[in-house]
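Practice set, problem 2.
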Amino acid sequence: MRRTVLSYLEESAVKYADKVAFFDEQDSITFAELRKRAIDLGYHIRGYLKGKRNPILVYLPKTIDSIVAFMGILYSGNFYTPTDTRFPAEKVVSVIETLHPAAVIVNGKTQEKFLDFVPDSELRLINLDEVKKTGAYGDSSVLTGDILDVDPVYTFFTSGSTGTPKGVIINNHNVIDYTDWAVNAFQINEHTVMGNQSPFYFDISTQDIYTTLKTGATLGIIPVKYFAFPVMVLRFIKERHINFLYWVPSAFVSIANFKLLESVILDEVTLIMFGGEVMPVKQMNYWKKNLPNLKMIANVYGPTEATVNCTYYIVDREFKDDETLPLGKACENTGLIVLDADGRVVEKDKSGIQGELCVYGSSLSVGYWEDEEKTNEKYVKNPCSDHYYERMYRTGDLVFYNERGELVFAGRKDFQIKHSGYRIELGEIESVAMGKEGITNVCASYHHEKKQIVLFYQGDVTEDEMKNYLLSVIPKYMVPTIYYRLKTFPFNDNGKIDRKKLSAEYIESGDAAQC
């Protein structure tokens, strides 16, 4: 029985010792090299810190060094919190003030930048470049012998839709439970070459990293700067023989909108996955049409609190451009409950009835870092467990079962509005608007003070054309009254549409708008 995620690296470093595990724009590292460097760092950290289960901040760019840092921290018996050198200084400081890390991992370049905005820091800085020069290679069992499966692996800080930062604690058991399922569900093996898009502080990267370590696959870290020039992304994928892409939808949408797959043929890509936000069917169909050897498309969903994902849907039929992809069914070893507005369970055979999705199971996080109040608010007793206490997580997402018994995303509880006496899902307006020919991206919002529905959109369509189209497909009370046609959409650190920035820039101040 596996107790720690390090067992994946221990096994692969023997079975696939000289095989490249990770590569970035400049460098690569084999499984054996990664293990050695990580153990060196683990001993180094142990020499400075007493005890284990301490949080350690990682302040590095998204490169191989970050992977070494993560594994070294785990070998030391502690857990990591990734940040990024692209973060604004105030965001890093905010994480530090909440986390109170025992140390910070930097390198020669990032140490100077870190000290610029934390000049009087009493934090212990551990320079990865210096550790690499010294080395203290020893027996890994000395480090891992007292690590338990309930010990944390990482804490990701996420603001979610509310804007309130919270640190989600994920332990070894959570990651093992999810990783073992993902490997089987998506047929990941030593021949898989994945192309990483997500930042290492975003939970999609958990699947990227740990399925690589478990199976002997290879993970290519696509440079962040390339995504500003999507054709560079495609060339990187083609030149590096990447065959598996798990990205946020906005990354797929950008490439589809420019129709770049017609000029760079990705004939080795056999599997694509998307998660983190709703994937428009129009752009999915473009990818499906232009990947000649595609074998599988998967739509996945899950909050960070469920490690990575709690539902998945492998696309098994054709969808029109204005349809919505299902969330599908529960991942293995995951329980799902849909509760209606009165707190009653919605049964699977009751199609069309909306409710809040709740999750329980072995991949469920233990809660939030130093925030008992928020933990108790979101992690509650499972109402279907009468005879003992079992926790479940209230996602805040509204779903319903379709006639096939598949879950379908309906929107966020906090994106549901009351307008003209009707309850309206902003996500439903977005889904329908994406079906209009010429539209490449949309975001629906609501101005509470003026009682107006607002639609931001991108595409070769006039305001009148957009409004007339919506009038023909949805009830009049759902049709937006204000339209903003944008050249580009702003995106946040995770690659999702920055809804808060849209509201701040385009909607007059007053009662907070939800976008």
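Problem 2, part (b): a different protein.
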Amino acid sequence: MRYAVFNSYFARAIAVPIVCILALAAPLSAQVNENKVRGNLIQFTDNGAWSWFQDERVVVDVANNQIILGAIANGAGFGGTAVDGDVRAIQFDLSSGSRKTTVLGNLKSYGGGDDHNVPAFQIKQDGNILAFYAGHNNLNGNEDGRSFFRTLDTTSNTWSNQREFSWWNSIPSNTPGAGGTTYSNLFQLAKEDPDGDGNGRLYNIARMHQSPHIMYSDNNGVDWVYGGQLTKQPSGAPTHSYVNGYYKYSSNGQDRIDIIATEFHPRDYNTSIYHAYIKNGKLLNSANEVIDHDIFDVAASFDASKITSTDDFTKVFQAGATENSRAWISDVQVYEDGSIRVLFKARDGAYSANHDMGSENQNVWLARFDPSSSSWSTYKIARAGGELFTAGAESDYTGLGALDPSDPNTVYISTEINPITGVATAQHEIYKGATSSNGASFAWSAITENSTFDNLRPIVAKWDANNTALLWWRGEMTSSQRFDTAVVGLIIRERELTSPIEYVDASLANTKRVDGRSLNITILTGPEEANGSWYVQQGFGNCDNVFASGGTGPEDTPTLSTVVTELEEGIYDAFVFFWAGNDEDWQIRAGLSEDMLTTFRRFGAQGIDPEQFPRDFVSVENNSDLQLYRAYLGRQPISEGESLKFFVGGSMHTANRLIPTWFDGVGYSRVVDVPEPSF
């Protein structure tokens, strides 16, 4: 069954007769389109999450037409304990949509794959890509003071062996504080080149002994040197101080690293927001006044009189005693015009010694530095809702947000309070905000809607004005060490247009076994006994049937291929449609080649939105118990008259449970480049 109604950009429509009657469980107007996404959702990895104090977690490698992102797998997610703690680097090919995942290492902290242990990346001047990662203060229950690193050779597309840098073996013995390391923040400053080899100095700034410390390399990452403690504990420390501030960084890649910081953890202190920057080995405040003449002068022996703290930074935001308390940073970006934007959160109400007090009402704020006046302005821009999860001590965790590195007037936030209506939503949703007043007000639009699980911690990779990579993760999280989530996102290309998706129902006419053997199909209307074959579940789905695998027990069903024939010449995005329960993780293995099947879950797919389909496409529900999902397979060029082949694997099973597959059909959308406007 096919339908096609191309939009006005395309030269003509394709008229194909309807060959079956759609099954409709409820009138379309009565259905709630759950897990809706405005755009083409891509699943980058089936198990992953990240914290937000390591950067860059996503980079766009324009020279090799790929996106590289990092994630940490958790034992509560897909793959279970076998992948718990895997440090993943995912390469997403922007031409084909293919994904390659490399496990850089395995780091478990506080009992599992910890979201703090995610890698950070830096595209070096030579085109190769450096990755650094560290445990969250400990590894496998033992305190640890190492950072691990590897380099991707983009010519051979291979990662080097893992190496490590021991902070404990490098820092002076009189350095204050205690504990292990965590976080990685990578930079290369092209104009700092002490050895004159044409490659600027590389930096990694990580938290060690409760404070930020520096390591650097002047031979392009081959050898690393300890650079000293960046700042010391500020004045007025609370009785219990977990860390001496939280730091986020942004660099112009040439000669400057900007820093946004708090004094302590907002759990322990009524934290404010501060700014300074590194340039020529010095630390300066927003007014360009030097506050540390040599950031490296405590590398050999710690001397508190030689370094500074947030006491001498420029104050960006003052936390209030009766309102706007406990600030914490989400993102910072420096723009070409010299302006700086900061996204942060603060609680609505007063500060209290009880860190849970007021955690249910938090807000998203934006700060802007105007280089012409050397002044900061701050604006409350949206409500963030309450703490992300109530278990544990992290009452200041929220959905967070991201700034667009290419557009200072665009932000993305995750919140459980709709900024358009002010109404609370069942789950955290992603929204895009646009301002024409430098942040004083925003116009909001929804990226996700009617979600049945959370959408959290968006990030936007540095790219260009015509292309945006917006990523986040979605699913269920109960702590930093326990989450069942998939990393997803949108690739938004301004110079590209796609047609509405044409749906093709999987049928006995267009779907065969890839091994050429007969497809013996059992026609059922009820549960199926495990017999190693696919069956057709009648009375359900589009065209009143679906291909199903996985009945009452594990079975090894053959791989299927659904073929769409006689396509026009062009480039096509390809999709697969499958069913999943509202509270069950039904999945499908699918791809554009038999030997590269990807497992898609409801967390990594999007609910059907009729607006993204031709007029007569109809999604179906079964008493709201099951939902039809669409998963993105990739992109493929097709010559005139060629066929597009889709491959689908059978059900999966673990030692404890069966994961059914209900395969309904496939879809495709034609891609066309939009010419540059002429004036």
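Answer key, part (b): Residues 96 and 144 are 40 Å apart (CA to CA). Confidence is low (pLDDT under 50) at residues 1-19, 21-30.
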